[in-house]
Write a structure and sequence with these properties.
The protein is an alpha/beta fold. It contains eight helices and six strands.
């Protein structure tokens, strides 16, 4: 492949050094039957995924100097299905937490949901309408730590009640770590989430809004999940839900947060897009 002009979303040498060991281990566990090492550099596959996530372009509109869309799709789907996307994300998240003097896994998480419109062509069977927010599409649920780092993500139809998403998030958190002891939620979550938290060993606290306050007022500790959603909106692929499968939508969140974490670990600045 001829040398291409770098994009703002490309991983630096320092950032690639953090991701490469996982990719090398993955390739070692998935050898080609013919012994072929692959036609495309794995770094370029990752660069293409990060570019698409940030710009929101369609598969067929990836710049021609990236690997072909079919090759990028192949790795996106296979890493989605075998959990490599989350493995990369989680290993980097642990490094961020340890770098700040914290344990790898948190004892406290904050849960919240966000409804986004679905793009044309997204299967109707996996979408719905959030009557409260008047959004037809899908609902994202996040569990984040006090640093705003994603611990778990769940994507469902927008018509799904926050309780259903909250219960699914608690199940994911409990399955991935036994360190979490407490979860904070807003008043959109009801007693069903609190009861389920007791079953999986997580104490759920509903943070009630001060009735004397009006408009948007950040709630102590809970604001970090709102900030996380704001950061994700910098990835244009996440402004709407373009994915046919909810699991693909979850993978997009992991890749977007992986890009954020890589910048945090290496001290890189976020590309400015206001003049784009």
């Amino acid at each position: 492949m001829s040398e291409r002009k770098s994009c703002k979303t490309d991983v630096s040498d320092e950032q690639w050094a953090l991701v490469e060991p996982v990719i090398i281990a993955w390739k070692g566990a998935h050898p080609s039957v013919s012994g072929h090492q692959g036609r495309y550099e794995m770094r370029e596959i990752v660069n293409a995924l990060l570019y698409q996530g940030r710009t929101g372009c369609q598969w067929d509109l990836l710049p021609h100097d990236f690997p072909p869309p079919g090759a990028v799709k192949y790795y996106f789907y296979i890493w989605r299905d075998d959990g490599t996307d989350q493995t990369i994300h989680d290993l980097l998240r642990w490094q961020v937490r340890e770098k700040t003097g914290r344990k790898a896994d948190p004892s406290l998480v904050v849960l919240d949901t966000q409804s986004v419109h679905a793009a044309a062509g997204v299967p109707a069977g996996s979408t719905g309408r959030d009557a409260a927010k008047k959004v037809a599409g899908r609902k994202r649920g996040l569990a984040v730590d006090v640093l705003g780092l994603v611990i778990a993500v769940v994507v469902a139809a927008a018509s799904a009640h926050d309780n259903a998403v909250g219960i699914a998030l608690l199940d994911k958190v409990a399955a991935d770590t036994d360190a979490v002891e407490k979860a904070l939620v807003d008043q959109g979550f009801k007693n069903a989430v609190v009861v389920h938290g007791e079953k999986v060993g997580i104490a759920v606290e509903v943070v009630e809004r001060n009735p004397a306050q009006s408009g948007f007022v950040p709630q102590a500790k809970r604001w970090v999940v709102e900030r996380a959603y704001g950061i994700l909106m910098l990835s244009r692929r996440l402004v709407r839900d373009y994915e046919h499968r909810p699991r693909s939508s979850e993978s997009r969140v992991y890749w977007a947060m992986t890009a954020v974490i890589l910048r945090r670990l290496t001290g890189a600045t976020t590309p400015a897009w206001r003049t784009a």
